[in-house]
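Per your request, structure below.
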């Protein structure tokens, strides 16, 4: 089968001009004013829409306890 019409480079480039990636939409947290991705929990304070969803203090203390325990067992 023979190609009947060729698309020029300009035609191809014009079509692809809309294919560029955009950056993520960021919102400010109402509690701590840090930037976070929309419809996601704030990674700085752990709140979503004004409510505390995940307790970051608990997870941080649990992680430090695990690190200390691993350090003691490896010695």
């Amino acid at each position: 089968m023979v190609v009947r019409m060729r698309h020029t480079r300009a035609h191809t480039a014009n079509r692809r001009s809309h294919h560029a990636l955009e950056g993520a939409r960021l919102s400010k947290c109402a509690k701590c004013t840090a930037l976070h991705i929309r419809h996601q929990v704030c990674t700085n304070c752990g709140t979503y829409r004004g409510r505390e969803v995940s307790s970051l203090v608990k997870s941080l203390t649990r992680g430090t306890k695990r690190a200390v325990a691993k350090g003691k067992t490896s010695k």
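Helices lie at 9-16, 56-74.

Regards,
D.
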